[in-house]
Amino acid sequence: MGHLTVLNFDKCKFLTKIPDVSDLPNLRELSFRWCESLVAVDDSIGFLNKLKKLSADGCRKLTRFPPLNLTSLETLELSQCSSLEYFPEILGEMENIQRLELHGLPIKELPFSFKNLIGLRLLFLRWCGIVQLRSSLSMMREQFQFNIENCNRWQWVESEEAEEKVGSIPSSKGHMFSAVNCNLCDDFFLTGSRRLTHVEVLNLSGNNFTILPEFLKELQFLKFLDVSHCEHLQEIRGIPPNLRIFHAINCVSLTSSSTSMFLNQVLSFL
């Protein structure tokens, strides 16, 4: 068994625990998707140095996932684990995961150690219960894309130490931030403005804020802005100086004076 490279427990209806796998150091793939009775996963899976793919989608009774220190891991699948409230701690730098999709999770926060996923380029959250987004997301490397859809609870959380780190982040290229249909209101801009400093693409369509605040003038890197279907949007107080594409389809509450002001500002850039 020590030479085993693939271990698949998918849809094992009566499996309640993933046992100690420390005697399987050559595992490349470990999968236990849609194991409806699974309630526990041994911590040893977090230390399989050769593991490239770890799949646990659909384990709906699983409430805890062990800490991970998987230097070779390329794929992590945790979607539809509908009782998993906390994302696993990342104990060491993991550079091989580039894409992470988390759908249908009630997770309460992404831990500060999330920044140890140093190779991550795309984080996609859909139908998740995230309440707290820590400043570690702002510390991801360049070309990072953050997409969140239909996650209706939102709060930026950071300690004083983390706030200082965010203030010292160097300029990054290619950052994309997308939060679509997330029930964002005006306080999103009050608490998250510093998180958007280096963003190039910003998609906030389908939300509930009433103004685009003046601080948008300070977003030097922003080139694309989409606020379509923001039916409560009434005022545009500032636009980024290097904006190239702006979408505001179906913004039915936008006043004519605000629209005129916006057009005047655009013409002044030409």
Quick structural overview:
With 270 residues, the chain is α/β, with parallel strands linked by helices. The chain contains 3 helices and 17 strands. Helix content is 10%, strand content 21%.
Describe this structure in words.
The structure is a single chain. This protein has 2 domains: 1-99; 131-270, Leucine-rich repeat, LRR (right-handed beta-alpha superhelix). The chain has helices at residues 160-167, 187-192, 256-269, and strands at 6-8, 17-18, 29-31, 40-41, 53-55, 75-77, 99-103, 122-126, 133-134, 145-149, 156-157, 175-180, 199-203, 211-212, 224-226, 235-236, 245-247. It contains 3 helices and 17 strands. Strands 7-8-10-12-13-15-17 form a 7-stranded parallel β-sheet, with no helix packed on it. It is α/β, with parallel strands linked by helices. Helix 2 links the parallel strand 12 and strand 13.
- Name the CATH class of the largest domain: Alpha Beta
Biggest sheet layout: 7 strands, parallel
Q: Which CATH architecture of the largest domain?
A: Alpha-Beta Horseshoe
CATH topology of the largest domain: Leucine-rich repeat, LRR (right-handed beta-alpha superhelix)
Helical segment count: 3
Q: Approximately how much beta-strand content do the residues carry?
A: 15-25%
Low-confidence spans = 159-173
Portion of residues in helices? 10-25%
The number of strands is 17
Give the averaged pLDDT, no decimals: 85
Total domain modules = 2
Please write the string of helix (H) and strand (E) elements.
Answer: EEEEEEEEEEEHEHEEEEEH
Shape verdict:
elongated
From the alpha carbons, calculate the radius of gyration and give it in angstroms: 21 Å
Cα(first) to Cα(last) distance is 68 Å
- The assigned structural class equals alpha/beta
| Strands in their spatial order, largest beta sheet | 7-8-10-12-13-15-17
